[in-house]
Amino acid sequence: MSIFILFQSFLGGFFGPICEIDVVLNDGETRKMAEMKTEDGKVEKHYLFYDGESVSGKVNLLFGRII
């Protein structure tokens, strides 16, 4: 399972996202998840990590078109 986050610079908000960051955890398929409510009442699932626990995986950056 991957986590998708859009990364924007100061001007990125005007022209769209600069790149997409894809984080793939080594234990993403077996990692425990916690449900959290957002401000608008929707429920989202997020990976659960404990203090001192190691995190490993791979980060992929996909850059968009350069204007």
UniProtKB/TrEMBL annotation:
Keyword Signal set for record: yes
GO BP terms, alphabetized: intracellular protein transport
Signal peptide: 1-20
Gene3D superfamilies the record matches: 2.60.40.640
Tagged with keyword Signal: yes
Alphabetized InterPro entries for the sequence: Arrestin-like_C (IPR014752), Vps26-related (IPR028934)
Keyword list, A-Z: Signal
Homology family: Belongs to the VPS26 family.
Protein name: Uncharacterized protein
